[in-house]
Amino acid sequence: MLLIDKIAYENRLIELSPKIKSAFYLFLLIICFLTTPMIQGIISLIIGLATIYVTKVKVTRYFKWLLIPAPFLAISILTILFSISSQSSAFIFKIPVFNNYLGITSTSLTIGTKLFFRSFSCLICTYFFILTVPFHQILVVMKQARFPILLIELTMLMYRFIFIFADEFLIIKRAQEMRFGYRGLKNSYHSLGLMIKILFFQSFDRFNKMILSLEIKFFDGDFPL
């Protein structure tokens, strides 16, 4: 069982109806999309503290999880903040680049600030949802909300392959570390390349074994939910 699943099954709100938590999550997302950065920041603070209390997660671990999508968010914001122009009057901060200027305008700063607070608040709310609602309850809510069966089954299979991928990754990485595969930059690159290669073949092998086990159990194409 993944740590996230373990936390979701042991949180303080496990007895609360998943439909109520799902509706609350959707309500929070709507609020985060429609309100100002100040309100989004307040929501982030409140929901973040509530998540730490409800899930009994250590503060350091929670912040480490928040840092996982940080590079993607940073790249998105930087591409909006910086622009290139031949005129320097529009920039509040600029760097000369050949015959042009690379910098930040007041408009791009405003848009970038809104994007950061909106994305961060939605991320905080999403963490609250996935850490308080176990995956099987999410599937039940999707079925009750009349999501397409194909979408539900794809979601379930994708989630299953997360376990397969994570399990294979940990086994390979542990074996490489025992053989000092990550000592030095050259060995690290070599071990990383081998890991990617092995993961690719091992994932296909585990997939074929899963298909075989389903056929043995007379799988007819539908997963009972």
From TrEMBL:
Protein location: Cell membrane
Family annotation (Pfam families): CbiQ
Protein name per its UniProtKB record: Cobalt ECF transporter T component CbiQ
Membrane-spanning ranges: 24-53, 65-84, 115-135, 147-166
Gene name for this UniProt entry: cbiQ
Keywords in alphabetical order: Cell membrane, Membrane, Transmembrane, Transmembrane helix
Membrane topology, as annotated: Multi-pass membrane protein
